[in-house]
Amino acid sequence: MPWEQGTDLGYLQDINRYWTQEYDWRRHEAELNCLPQFITKVDGVDIHFVHARGKGPHPTPIVLTHGWPDSFYRFYKVIPMLTDPERYGGDPWDSFDVVVPSMPGFGFSSRVPLPGNRVADLWAKLMTEHLGYERFGAAGGDLATWVTRSLAARYPHQVIGIHLTDVDYPSAEQAASLAEPVRELATAMQRWLFTDGGYWLLQSTKPQTLAYSLTDSPMGLAAWILEKFRSWSDCDGELERRFTKDELLTNIMIYWVTRTIGSSVRMYYENGRALSGSEIKFDRKAGVPAAVASFPKDLAPLPREWAEHMVDLKRFTVMPRGGHFAALEEPKLYVEDLRAFFREVVPTSP
Which of 17, 45, 73, 331 has the fewest CB atoms within 10 Å, measured from its CB? Predict the structure, then answer.
């Protein structure tokens, strides 16, 4: 069966043909350069970020954090929708000042992989000391869940609220004393680990071995990333129902031209080391309100009971469609939910 053991050869050959004969990186590079992008040094780490100012009367500052194997490109569709809602039929009072950094080890930031809690420290300094925001919101999913929850736990007086698409996943031991939906989630994640989680084990334990081949071979890199986009999105096995070839290749090119696939996968290793220590603490009672949007084709359906256990939940939305790459797959649904939540926690309209 195609794709059963990994990326399908026929599809990879088609991508190879399109990439070498039709794809225009310079055109997409120029489009990316239309975004207001900057690089600044935070605690000795070069941080690349988009900083798009809102066009409404009272924009809410927000930092959006990507995951893996995507990049800051995950948010390219939602940036204009958030900064200029009136242009898209929305209320100008719902506008945001949007900051989208590339995590250390990814894209155009320094190739210095850090665990999520350290990334949160950098984001707090970026938003307050470098950009001058006293308070701000935060959003993300995947690896960004750790970053965003760390911001809430470590900087509760600066963080207005957090919006997540997952809240991490329970082990069987964690779920044993919780409600049945949480136990079902734990079982589903155990099943997922054995069918789709091989990448996680490898990247958490021996990332350097993997890095050599992915940095050396563009088609190897493409195969590694495409498999995840197909498995984790709401595409029913047809990647291009959700993403164009150009979108898939532009994300891959950000890894390829910056040679950051090795440092990006090492973030899993750094997270594992940090979790084995004693410095990682998430306090859901930190006083920072949270919203969770559950997209049905993410790694596993997320029950409200688990979200309530993990964060100070104020809003929970079960989405009708969409998967792991929510802002890229369903930008309108994503933006509407994020706006609705921050409208509740930051009432600014007259």
Answer: 17
Q: Which residues contact 49 (CB under 8 A, 6 or more apart)?
A: 37, 38, 39, 40, 72, 99, 100, 101, 102, 126
- Note the maximum CA span of the chain: 58
Give dist(CA 72, CA 103) in Å, integer: 8
Taking the alpha carbons at both ends of the chain, their separation in whole angstroms is 58
Active-site residues, by number, are 142, 268, 324
What is the band of 349 on the pLDDT scale with cuts at 50, 70, 90? low
pTM recorded for the entire structure: 0.96
Task: Encode burial over 187-212: b for 16+ CB neighbours within 10 A, e otherwise.
Answer: eebeeeeeeeeebeeebbeebeebbe
Task: Report pLDDT for 175.
Answer: 84
Query: Is pLDDT above 80 for 277?
Result: no
pLDDT per residue as tens digits for the range 14-68? 999 999 999 999 999 999 999 999 999 999 999 999 999 999 999 999 999 999 9
Calculated CA dihedral for residues 78, 284, 203, 191, nearest 10 degrees = -100
Q: Is the pLDDT of residue 282 over 60?
A: no
Report how far residue 152's alpha carbon sits from residue 285's, in angstroms, rounded to the nearest whole number.
Answer: 10
Residue 233 three-state SS: coil
The closest of 319, 271, 244 to 68, measured between CA atoms, is 271
The DSSP code for 94 is: G
pLDDT higher than 70, residue 286: no
User: Amino acid identity, residue 169?
Assistant: Y
Asked if residues 243 and 328 have their Cβ atoms less than 8 Å apart, the reply is yes
Measured CA to CA, the distance from residue 292 to residue 232 in angstroms comes to: 18
Residue-range domains of the chain with CATH: 9-345 (3.40.50.1820)
Separation CA 97–CA 53 (nearest Å): 4
Instruction: For residue 168, report the phi and psi dihedrals to the nearest 5 degrees.
Output: 75, 180
